[in-house]
C-alpha cells in the first residue's frame, strides 16, 4: 500500500491565512498610528505570526498521514496508532473513532477535504481489524 495523505479543507487553510493577514495588518496599523510604543501592541503582530505559522504548518503537514504501519494525526501533539493494534472503528456524526486496547482518537471529517474523505473511506473499508480471542475459563 502506498502512503496516503489526507488533506485539510481549503476553507480551514484560507481562514487561517485571512486571520494572519488581519492581525498583522491591525498590528502594523496600531504601531504606525500610536505615538508611544507599548508592549501589548505587539500582541497583534504575535497573533498574526501564530496564525501564519498555523497556516504553513497545516499546508505542509496535512491532517492525516497513513502508511503501511500506522495512522498519524499531524499536529502540535500528534497522535499515532499502529494499524495492527486497531480493535474497533466507530463512525459517528462528525467523524470516526479509532480504538486500540489502550488508546483511542477521533478523526473529524469536517476538517478533511472532500477528495481526501473519499480516499479515507475506501481505506477504512479495506482495513482488517484485529480481533482478540477471549477464552472462557471453566472451573
Describe the fold and architecture.
There is one protein chain. The chain is an alpha+beta fold and 139 residues long. The chain has two domains: 57 residues; 49 residues, no CATH class. 40% of the residues lie in helices and 21% in strands. It has three helices and seven strands, in the order βααββββββα. The strands form two sheets. The chain has a four-stranded antiparallel β-sheet with strand order 1-2-3-4, covered by helices on one side. A three-stranded antiparallel β-sheet has the order 5-6-7, with no helix packed on it. A hairpin with a 5-residue loop joins β3 and β4. α1 packs antiparallel against α2. The longest helix is centred in the first third of the chain and has 24 residues. It is elongated and about 70 Å long. The termini are far apart. The model has no long low-confidence stretch (mean pLDDT 87).
What is the structure about, briefly put?
The chain is an alpha+beta fold.
Percent of residues in helices: 40-55%
Question: Count of DSSP E strands?
Answer: 7
The biggest beta sheet is recorded as: 4 strands, antiparallel
Number of helices: 3
What is the 3D shape?
elongated
- Rg measurement, Å: 21 Å
Order of strands, main sheet, comes to: 1-2-3-4
Tally of discrete structural domains: 2
SS-based structural class? alpha+beta
Amino acid at each position: 500500500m502506498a502512503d496516503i495523505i489526507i488533506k485539510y479543507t481549503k476553507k480551514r487553510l484560507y481562514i487561517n491565512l485571512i486571520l494572519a493577514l488581519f492581525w498583522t495588518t491591525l498590528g502594523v496599523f496600531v504601531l504606525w498610528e500610536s505615538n508611544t510604543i507599548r508592549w501589548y501592541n505587539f500582541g497583534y503582530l504575535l497573533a498574526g505570526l501564530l496564525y501564519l505559522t498555523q497556516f504553513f504548518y497545516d499546508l505542509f503537514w496535512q491532517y492525516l498521514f497513513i502508511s503501511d504501519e500506522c495512522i498519524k494525526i499531524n499536529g502540535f501533539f500528534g497522535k499515532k496508532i499502529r494499524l495492527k493494534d486497531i480493535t474497533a472503528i466507530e463512525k459517528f456524526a462528525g467523524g470516526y473513532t479509532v480504538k486500540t486496547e489502550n488508546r483511542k482518537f477521533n478523526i473529524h471529517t469536517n476538517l478533511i477535504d472532500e477528495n481526501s474523505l473519499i480516499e479515507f473511506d475506501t481505506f477504512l473499508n479495506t482495513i482488517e481489524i484485529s480481533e482478540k480471542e477471549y477464552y472462557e475459563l471453566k472451573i
